[in-house]
Here is the input.
Amino acid sequence: MNAQDLRKLLEQTDDKLSIFASPETLNKYDFNAREFFDLISDFLSDEEKLKLFDYSHFRQFEGWIKSGIIGLVSDEHIILQMMNNDNIMNGFESYQIVDIMKKMSDIGKQQLLHNQEFIEKHQIDGYELEEIISSLTEEARTEILMDIDLIRNQLHLEDFQVTKLVERLSSEEVKDKAIGIYQFASYQKRSILKTYSNSHKLDTLMQEKDFNKLDIIDILKTLDIETLSEFLIEHKEFYSENKIHPYEVVKSLDGNQQMDFVAKLEDMNLTLNEKREILAVLTTEVKQNLDTTNFPEEYKSALSIQTTEYGARVILDLERNLEDYRGLDNLMRINPEGFTEEQKTKFIKLCDICPNMTVLSNLNDTVTFDSNATEYKEAEEWITSIIDSLNPEYSKAQKMAVIDNAIGKKVSYSPDFDTEVFDISNCRALWKIISSGYGVCNGIAKVEQYMLNRVGIESEIISSGTHSFLKIKDIELPLANEEIAKGNTILDPTWNLTRHRFGGKPDNFCISYEQARKNDIDIEGKDHNCHKNDEQLQDATLNLDEQSLRGLFTSVGLADRDGQFPIKDLLEKSKLLDEFYANQPEQNISKQFLLLRQICPEFATCQNSSMSILSDVLLSNENLRFNKCVVNRVYNRTDKEKRPILYVYINSNELGEKFYIDNKDDGQFVELPQEEFIKLFECYEKDKKKHKRT
Here is the structure.
C-alpha cells in the first residue's frame, strides 16, 4: 500500500490523529518524506501537529523530519511551544533551527533571540544569528541592534558581524547612532560610511578624526566621478592635511571611472605635476583607450611612463629621457643597490630631477627602508671618496680594514636607541645612516656589506636575535709569519665603532666564532649571547691574531710602524693630565673634557662612543675615583623632538654633586647647578626604567 491508500484511510477516519499515533498502522504504507509531510499538512490542525510529538516514534525522528513538521505549523504560538520543548528539539542541527526562525514573524524571532538559554543550548553561532537578525524588518532589526547588551553580552556577536548588520540598515541616522554606541574601530566605521549617501558620506568624512589616509582614499573612491572631482577642487586643504595626493585616489578607481575622471582633468584646479601623476598611474587599458590627439607633450610623456600594478610606483627606465620623470617624485620608489656604475651616474642625475623621490634599500629579503634623494647623493659621494682612496694594489683584507675604519669615523651608534623617541626606520636605511651619521647594528652591518660588495668582498649579515654583524666569506688574511690564512671570519662593525672613532685597535675585526663568543662574556662572567648563532657561524673559524691585525692596519696607515694605534696618544695625555692635576679634581675633570674635545671635536654628536670613552678612559683615571659617576643622555624639556644631550653626573666626597652638559653650540661641557639641571632637563622614560632595574 502507498501514500494514496493512506490518504483514503485518513479521509474515511474521524480521529485522524490516531492514524499518525499508531506506528503499526503507518508501517503498513510505503511513502516518502514529501508525501508524509503533505498528509500531515492536509489532515491535521496545528494543535494536532503539536500533539504528534506526544508519541515516542515522532520524538525519535531525525531533526530534519521534525523540522519539516514544525515548518507546516502556521500558528506561531504553537511553533514557539515546539521550539521550547527539549523532547521535540532533541537531534536538531543549528541550521535547521535557523531555517525555522527565519520564517517566523519579527515578534517570534525577537522572543527567541532574547532567550539566551535557547541560543546557547542549540549552539547557534554568530553567523547564524547574523542571518536571523538580517531577516528581521528594518524596524525590528534596528531595535535589536540598539540593544548593545543583547548583542554583545548575550548573543556575543563580533564587531565585524555587527558592522555588516549596520551596513544593511537604510537609515543613516540609525547608522550614526550605532557607530556611536559600539565605538567601532576606524576600518569598521569606514565600511559603514561607504554605504552612506554621497552628501552624508562627505560630511562625516570631514568631521571624523579617526580615519587614516588609506581609510579616506577607500571612502573617496566610492563617490561618483562628478562628486569626487568637485570635492577635490573645493577641499584641496583636506587632501593636504591628510597627506593625500589626487593620483592616490585615481589609481584606486576602476577603468571606467578613470576614463570619466580624465575627461574632467582639464577643468580641475590641479598643478601640472598633479595631472601628470594622475596620467602616469592610469591602468594600461585606460591609457590605450584614451584619445591623446590634443594632449600636450607633458601629458603624453606621463602616459608613457610604466608603473607597477595598480599604479603603486614607477618602473624606472634609465635609458629613456630622464626629464620625463620630472614632477613624478611621489611615484618614484627606487632601489639602486644593484645598479652598475653607469646606472648610478644616471640615477644621481635623476636625483636632481626628482629631489623628493624615495630611495629604497633592503635590509633583508622582506624588509625595506627609505632614504631620500639628497641622502642618497651625500652617501654615495662619501662611499665613492672612500673607495677611490683605496690603493689599487691593496688586498681585500687591506681594503676591508680601510672601509671598516672609515665607517667607524663616519657613523655612530644611534644616540636615541632604546628611548621612546627612537625611529626604527631612520637607523636602518642604508643611505640615511651615512648621511645622518647614525645607525643601529643591522643598519650599520648593511652599510659595511654594501661597501664591501663594491670592492668585491662577499659577506652575509648574521643575526643572533639581539645583535647583527657580518660573516666575511672566503677571505685571505695576511699573517705575521708571512703566511696567508683563507676562510670565513666575523667582522662586527658596530662593536668596532668606538675603537675606530678614537683610533683604537678594533677587537672585533676578523675574529673566529669562538673568539666572538668569548667577547660576549662581560667582566662579571655573564654571557650576553650577542654573537650566538651556531648554525650559520660554525664555519667562521678564521681568527686574525693581534700581531697580524696590527701589521694589517700598519700596512694601510691606520697604525704606526710599531703597530701602535692612535688611541695610545689619547691614553698617555689623559694619564699625564690625571697625574698633573692629581690634587685638583675639578681641574682634572675640566682638562679631561677639553682633551676629549681636542681628540674628537664632534664628540657631542657621536654620543654612544663619547659615553664609552668618558666612562672607560677619561673619567676612570687613578685620581678620579668618585663615589658615583654616570655618563648618559637627557633631553631639554622644551624640545618637542626630545633630542638626546650628553651629560655627566659626578658624586665625590671632595666635590659633592656635579652636573655637566655638553653644549653642542660651542662643543664643550658646561657645568650646571643641580637645581638648574633638574629644571631644564628630563630623563627618557626607558632610562628611568632601566635605572630602577639596576
In short: The chain has a mean pLDDT of 92.
